Amino acid sequence: MNEAPLIDLAGVGRTYLAGGAPLTVLQGITLTIRAGEFVAIMGASGSGKSTLMNIIGCLDKPSVGVYRVRGVDVASLDGDALAALRRDTFGFIFQRYNLMSDLSALENAEVPAVYRGMPQMVRRDRAGGLLRDLGLGDRLKHYPSELSGGQQQRVSIARALMNGGPVILADEPTGALDSKGGREVLEILEALHGRGHTVILVTHDSNIAAFAHRVVRITDGRVSSDEQQPGKTASPAAPPEVAGAPATRDLAVLGESVKMALYSLLNNRMRTALTMLGIVIGVASVVALMAIGNGAKQDVLDRIQAMGTDLLTIERGPPNVRASGAIVTSFLPEDLPAIADVPGVAMVDPETELSSLLRYGNHDLTVTAVGTAESFPAVHDWAVAEGSFFTADHVKRYAQVVAIGKTIARNLFDPGTSPVGAYVLIGNAPFLIIAVMAAKGSTPRGDDLDNSVWLPYTTAGARIFGQRFFRHVIVRVAPGADMNVVEDGLHALLIKRHRIEDFNIRNMADTIATANETQNTLTYLLAAIAVISLVVGGIGVMNIMLVSVTERTREIGIRMAIGARGFDVLFQFLTEAVMVCFIGGLAGVAVGVGSGFAMSSLAGWRVTFTPAPILIAFFCAFLTGIVFGYLPARKAARLDPIEALARE
Ligand code: ADP
Ligand code: MG
Q1: Mean pLDDT in the chain?
Q2: 249: pLDDT confidence band, cut at 50, 70 and 90?
Q3: By percentage, how much of the chain surpasses pLDDT 70?
């Protein structure tokens, strides 16, 4: 080290601007203190002693003049460098102890070492050792409220020594103590000086000042006298160095932040629970609504898929013209062989549906009569439950045979009696039931597919519909054939045969894509609603964090005085906000999954949980913590340590 004095003030003044007229508290202070000195600063109350002490301890800055620590002008240092000085060089002892009430004696003493990056085990040991040396071996786990004033002040001395504390700054350390407690503290300070610590003691009591070897008097903000005490010498020893470990600093700060966040959340359980509720509801609604949206989508897609994905539907009527089908009469049985010959076509199935009256005995039913060909079950993968479907021969012969759907069979026949072999009237013509089809369920639009009867298109056209043409022709594409190529082939063929484009071809893949899109839009809409509730929850978090920062302003001041950087404070409050959102997010996922399952079992909705929405919701909650915690945390980090400490 060079020979620059430890502490060197030249022409230092301090003027407070707050509260109307500027108030000059210190002026022209020129003072040099060397390592190993024991200096008492004396003066009447209000003379500016604390202001001077705060400047020396780098909690405050001079308004005019230069203050150098070991030759370095503090005006040239940034916030982090000042924090490092407070952390490693100065050890503050306050009149009112300034311990953190949520922390035990041991934890309080440890805090400065956290900001120095001392590993937890090492700092535990060191804090314990210091407290034992100060006679508090049996009070390590006690909280400040369980300690006497003298004991609290000794904890604060241990804290000041935690990082070595080569310069002890004690601002009226005995002011709040009885004479016995005060003497103990003074004896400790004397002993520390003997071990090489530089001690600067502020007092208004000359009996206390007598312990020092140099007394500086302040009157009305100026140095009025500066005297050596006879018979006292500066300590030649240097205080032991304390190892720092900057590498583990961030980890130590993270650990402390998580611990403090937990304490804070546990100490305000009701408030924490209510704040979390917003996040829980937000995340749960994202998870549940997305699952419901996905379930609905899967449902629709499955129903479409069940109708077959390798089908092309040729509808009559020109493309993109609605409701013109009725006048187009060009789809005739003669087209079928030509369509079947198109390369890639595996099966062809013409269909015409018409709502018709079915009579059996004295029962009348309105059913969907479908005029179709023998290929119908194969094209639609529709199994025959009883009997057998009509054949090409039935079609050719205009046979009066019919296959009926499961719903009709159930409605007209007793269980146990087979409908096959019975006669029904459709329109006015009698038909022999030759098959019952397996149940198929409903269309996406909710029509019951099993409330249908299937007749040869020849018979249906002649006896019921009174028309030869078909409503649509369904083509099943051969396995491995390209849908689009087959579609083009059909298109070309029909243009050639009909000379005009009086048809349009629908591809199942297109239908699925459209349905997919529609359902996705719905899901995104649900997601948007859910995200809004998450944002509302986030605002709740921000609100509570602002309250928390206001409540804990003094704690922030203490932390800064003992070496926390602005970033450390920011990080601590951010951790608290993120933790609320993290725990809220976990609970929200649980509630969301739970209510999703509840919804599916109570309302019978299909819910599909996929990892993505759950992860996104959880990540959003995390992000909410950071975004909405940032503002309050920054407010905390920007607090002026002096003002924060002054707050009650
Ligand atoms: P001492 O410690 O010697 O009793 P202080 O240094 O605390 O005196 O205060 C000196 C003067 O500065 C007092 O008159 C006090 O009212 C004023 N003062 C202290 N802090 C502030 C502040 N933050 N804003 C305005 N005035 C202040
Ligand atoms: Mg004071």
Answers
A1: 88
A2: confident
A3: 95
Q: Which of 51, 609, 645, 640 is nearest to 286 (CA)?
A: 609
Query: Are the C-beta atoms of 6 and 34 separated by less than 8 Å?
Result: yes
Question: How many angstroms is it from 203 CA to the middle of ligand 2?
Answer: 8
Strand partners, 432: 401, 423
CA distance 152 to 168: 17
- Find out whether the beta carbon of 392 lies less than 6 Å from any atom of ligand 1: no
What are 185-244's pLDDT values in tens digits?
999 999 999 998 999 999 988 888 888 989 999 999 999 999 988 777 666 667 667 666
Q: With a 6 A CB cut-off, is 578 part of the ligand 1 pocket?
A: no
SS3 string, 123-180, reads: HHHHHHHHHHHCCCCCCCCCCHHHCCHHHHHHHHHHHHHCCCCCEEEEECCCCCCCHH
Among 16, 219, 639, which residue has the most ligand 1 atoms within 8 Å of its CB, making it the best to mutate?
Answer: 16
Cα 374 to chain centroid, rounded: 58
Domains (range + CATH), the chain: 7-246 (3.40.50.300), 260-301+514-646 (no CATH), 329-501 (no CATH)
Q: Which residue has the CA at smallest separation from atom 22 of ligand 1? A: 16
Q: Which ligand lies nearest to the CA atom of residue 63 in the structure?
A: 1
Most distant CA pair in the chain, distance: 137
Q: Are strands 452-456 and 363-372 parallel, antiparallel or unpaired?
A: parallel
**Residue pair 556/644 in contact by the 8 Å Cβ criterion:** yes
Determine whether the shortest distance from the Cβ of 23 to ligand 1 is under 6 A: yes
